[in-house]
């Protein structure tokens, strides 16, 4: 979380709110079970705007956070940028969400 705070200038309370409201997701790793959020989910202003809806679609379809993170980062040459997360970053959320809906069925 300190890295998120440093990148965005957000307070710890704000970062926790983003996580609670699922604007960001992460996984716990390591011996101290630290929360890791992929840097690709962030901009200097905060969470990537298009991420929340995509996470919601996949979560509603039964995907766990680990699976969502893996799917978003999986190589896919048919998407702009080569993956779902890079397509979201490029502004192509419609196609990514369409595919997420298909995955969630």
UniProtKB/TrEMBL annotation:
Keywords: DNA-binding. Pfam families: Rv2175c_C. Residues 51-104 form the Rv2175c C-terminal domain. This is DNA-binding protein. The keyword DNA-binding applies. It comes from Ornithinimicrobium ciconiae. It comes from the Bacteria. One of its GO terms (molecular function) is DNA binding.
């Amino acid at each position: 979380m300190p890295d998120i705070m440093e990148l965005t200038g957000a307070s710890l309370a704000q970062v926790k709110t983003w996580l609670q409201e699922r604007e960001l997701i992460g996984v716990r790793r390591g011996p101290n079970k630290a929360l890791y959020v992929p840097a690709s989910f962030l901009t200097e202003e905060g969470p990537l705007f298009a991420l929340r809806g995509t996470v919601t679609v996949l979560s509603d379809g039964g995907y766990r956070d680990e699976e969502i993170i893996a799917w978003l980062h999986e190589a896919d040459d048919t998407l702009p940028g080569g993956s779902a997360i890079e397509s979201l970053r490029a502004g192509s959320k419609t196609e990514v969400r369409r595919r997420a809906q298909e995955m969630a069925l």
